[in-house]
Design a protein that fits this description.
There is one protein chain. It is built from 32 helices and 25 strands. By secondary structure, the protein is α/β, with parallel strands linked by helices. The longest helix is centred in the last third of the chain and has 27 residues. It starts with a strand and ends with a helix.
Length: 825
């Protein structure tokens, strides 16, 4: 007899009673066996799972006996043989998986699946870095040799992969920290339900009322009993450590434990000065950073090619194509085919769409301001909330659902939506900027003849529902959104749901039914943008047929230039990692422009369509459109641009001039290709710029400050920066820092020493020559780096890339230095 597969199935009718059939079949038959048993006479489709392969000599009756030992009894006079009454009525498959694992894997846990190929590669690369397998100069060139970054898109399986990495490097103590407490449940389930981690214990730092069975710390900080490795999960909001080590009694052991591995989840969201201060007070051996969009982290911090594993949407689409090609008859397990394709439609809003002059909503940095369109005001007498541009909003809302001859390209709930293939019953998320704007819009839509047929969900973070939005659902937890979606699916009078958010549920949370997102704000961060749009790209599968319910997901953006710019940021991030890896391996091909190739890949796989002047016929987007939006200068300018970019400059550190006034004199001495006036530079003015910038950083980094409050602070800061004298001072400071980087590059190129990192420059055996080339002493340079006036991680990356370029056959003197001079001039 060949290999046997254990399967289980039920129907909706039998599921209500917890009845489940458990049997085996030959592995080459698989799902076909289940369908054959049902035949054409059964009015219901099976709900089934393939549990796993049975070892040689084992059959289904072995599992039947274990089911009975666990309290699942055979059904006498039931629908057929091998039917059991499960203990877990809500999920009887869990009982079968437990019995299977007890017999086959000697473990009572319910989950057992293997790493996918890309997850295995991530574990292998990370363990290779942590175990220092690379050449000595590669390890030494890293600013943070104890850190590794997994840069992987949503639904990669970062939890499962990360715990496998912890296991691979023999971590006995692992700490998971996140700014998103909602994701802790997934970590706990991964550790405590997976057979692969059967000796491990996942622990909550703070108990959660709706998950009372989760192991958690006691009020006085005692850990639950565990004989194997532990994984403690804590949010940054909970983990607060004072300057003198003050900490909550429940968390008092965290600073005392020597952590083998710390996993920083959703690092793009919380890589703040506060977070780094907290981590600096802990005893950490190794750090693993996780993010789907670490654009700023990679740009501003320093991770070598060997310190990053990248898995992008392009990689997923490539795997999907290969899986389809290798299994045209769909006999094998579906993995990548279950993920929907993401389609982007970018739509120009015209005067006709809003019955208003479009120029009213145009700004210097975005072609159409959605923030301004949905701006609100309160009446002086009644304090009633309304839109400033009420008529424009009304026209826009009407245009969204038009289906007739007068429908235009904004008809994403009407004619355009139909043409694109949007589902009839829709579950969408509208991403807006302000809580007040969401409240006013919900009140308007509840009285609208079309949109009142949707269940409206206020997920803005507001604590109260206003009188005008009395029928809306206030959602602070994912469960509230899920319940509303289920209600809409069961109610034939409802067209679906609309979830309104200022950012809640748009990172680290999966709501599989969401089919589209409308971007109704002025967000310019590529990180936030791509985090949000990939929320709607999660798999939604029919549990009966195992076929995807959602084959496409949709993004609707109404600011064309913004969409192209953030897509450029995404392409740059992917291409940058590819180029770093190839540069290290000296596999650079000057005839291949990586950024252009990646940009083309995104245009093709995202199917970015642009709609102009109300037309329902789109213009395709090309790689050239993306590169032009990002003001791309070509591959040969990339390193030069990095050296002369603001990524090296920290305005907030100017506040330290009060303690270190000599730094101003050092900055004045930096050489450059041109001279700057330095006589009238005021230390007091520079200090104030630094204080303002530091305050702004605190506000931006605080996840507890509502978006509208952040916007007010940012607007006030921008108003200050419009001052001509202040702009001049900031330009002078930034220019001096960039000049120093250019001079340092000249110095590296002209010395006989080999510099792999910034410390090699600092430790140079040619200090006099360094002074000649830069205008300042080596000690002055160390002070600037140590005090943070020049960002050392970003500088370190430049040194390493310059070294890689020197080591290759790319004639660096031909394009790096020449391009530096070109940029500087």
């Amino acid at each position: 007899m060949g290999k046997l597969l254990l399967y289980a199935y039920t129907t909706e009718t039998y599921l209500r009673d917890g009845w489940i059939k458990v049997g085996h079949t030959k592995s080459e038959i698989g799902e076909e066996r289940i369908w054959n048993q049902f035949g054409s006479s059964n009015p219901e489709n099976p709900i089934y799972q393939i549990i796993g392969e049975l070892p040689d000599g084992m059959q289904d009756h072995n599992i039947h006996k274990q089911l009975q030992r666990n309290g699942c009894r055979p059904i006498e006079g039931g629908p057929g043989k091998e039917w059991f009454k499960a203990k877990n009525i809500t999920d009887p498959f869990k009982d079968v998986r437990q019995a299977y694992n007890e017999i086959v894997n000697n473990c009572s846990r319910t989950e057992h699946y293997k790493l996918r190929k890309e997850q295995e590669k991530a574990v292998e690369k990370a363990s290779k870095w942590f175990n220092k397998v690379y050449p000595k100069e590669v390890i030494e060139s890293a600013t943070h040799p104890d850190r590794f970054l997994i840069n992987a898109k949503m639904r990669f399986g970062k939890c499962f992969t990360s715990i496998h990495l912890a296991k691979k490097i023999n971590a006995r103590t692992t700490l998971i920290v996140t700014y998103k407490p909602d994701v802790i449940g997934e970590w706990i389930d991964t550790v405590n339900e997976q057979v692969d981690f059967k000796e491990w214990t996942g622990i909550r730092a703070k108990a959660k009322s709706d998950r009372p069975a989760d192991p958690c710390l006691s009020d006085n900080g005692e850990f639950p009993r565990s004989s194997g490795p532990i994984v403690l999960c804590v949010s940054f909001q909970d983990l607060s450590i004072g300057e003198n080590g003050e900490i909550k009694p429940r968390l008092q052991q965290i600073p005392e434990i020597e952590w083998d591995l710390i996993i920083f989840d959703e690092v793009h969201y919380g890589n703040t000065e506060r977070a780094n201060n907290i981590l600096s007070k802990l005893k950490i051996s190794k750090r693993l950073y996780l993010s789907g969009t670490p654009f700023r982290l990679i740009e501003q911090d320093d991770f070598s090619a060997q310190q990053v594993y990248t898995y992008s949407y392009l990689d997923e689409q490539k795997n999907k194509r290969e899986e389809i090609a290798s299994d045209p008859d769909e006999q094998a397990e579906k993995i990548y085919r279950l993920m929907p394709d993401l389609n982007m439609s970018v739509i120009e809003i015209t005067d006709h769409d809003i019955s208003e002059q479009r120029t009213t909503f145009e700004t210097d940095d975005i072609d159409f301001s959605l923030n301004r369109l949905f701006e609100t005001e309160r009446a002086d007498d009644t304090k009633e909330l309304s839109f400033v541009y009420e008529n424009a909003v009304d026209h826009f809302i009407e245009g969204l659902h038009k289906e007739g001859h007068d429908a235009r390209s904004i008809s994403v709930y009407g004619k355009l939506g139909q043409r694109l293939g949007c589902p009839v019953k829709r579950h969408t998320v509208w991403w807006m900027n302000r809580v007040d704007g969401i409240s006013a819009l919900i009140e308007k839509l509840q009285n609208h003849p079309h949109f009142s047929k949707f269940i409206l969900i206020n997920a803005s973070g507001s604590d109260t529902i206003r009188n005008g939005e009395s029928e809306a659902i206030l959602a602070r937890e994912k469960n509230s959104v899920q319940r509303a979606i289920n209600d809409a699916n069961e109610d034939p009078t409802k067209l679906g749901t609309i979830t309104f958010s200022c950012g809640r549920f748009l990172t680290g949370v999966t709501i599989k039914e969401w089919d589209s997102i409308l971007i109704l704000n002025d967000i310019k961060s590529g990180e936030s943008y791509y985090q949000a749009i990939f929320r709607v790209q999660s798999a939604w599968v029919n549990e009966k047929t195992k076929q995807p319910i959602k084959t496409k997901a949709f993004v609707f953006d109404f600011a064309i230039s913004r969409c192209l710019k953030v897509t450029y940021d995404c392409a740059y991030n992917i291409a940058d990692q590819i180029d770093q890896e190839r540069s290290y391996e000296q596999q650079v091909n000057l005839n291949n422009n990586t950024l252009e190739i990646v940009a083309k890949g995104l245009c093709d796989t995202l199917d970015i369509k642009r709609f102009y002047e109300g037309s329902l016929t789109s213009d395709p987007t090309t790689a050239q459109d993306i590169l032009e939006a990002g003001n791309y200068d070509g591959g040969r300018m990339a390193l030069a641009r990095r050296i002369t970019s603001n990524m090296l400059v920290s305005f907030s550190h100017l506040r330290l001039l009060e303690q270190y006034p000599d730094v101003l004199e050092i900055l004045k001495k930096v050489k450059g290709y041109r001279t700057q006036e330095v006589a009238d530079i005021s230390a007091d003015d520079l200090i104030q710029i630094g204080l303002d910038a530091a305050d702004l950083d605190v506000v931006k980094d605080d996840p507890n400050i509502p978006p509208e409050d952040k916007e007010k602070v940012i607007e006030d800061f921008a108003e200050k920066d419009r001052d001509k004298e202040r702009k001049s001072l900031k330009k002078w400071y930034a220019t001096q820092i960039k000049r120093l980087a250019i001079c340092m590059a000249d110095f590296i190129y002209m010395t006989y020493e080999r510099e792999y990192k910034i410390d090699h420059v600092i430790q140079t055996k040619s200090p006099q020559f360094f002074r000649v080339m830069t205008g300042i002493t080596k000690e002055d340079f160390v002070l600037l780096c140590d005090m943070g006036f020049i960002k050392k991680p970003a500088l370190n990356r430049i040194v390493r890339e310059f070294s890689d370029q020197e080591s290759s056959s790319l004639e660096p003197e031909k394009y790096i230095l020449e391009n530096l001079k070109k940029v500087a001039s």
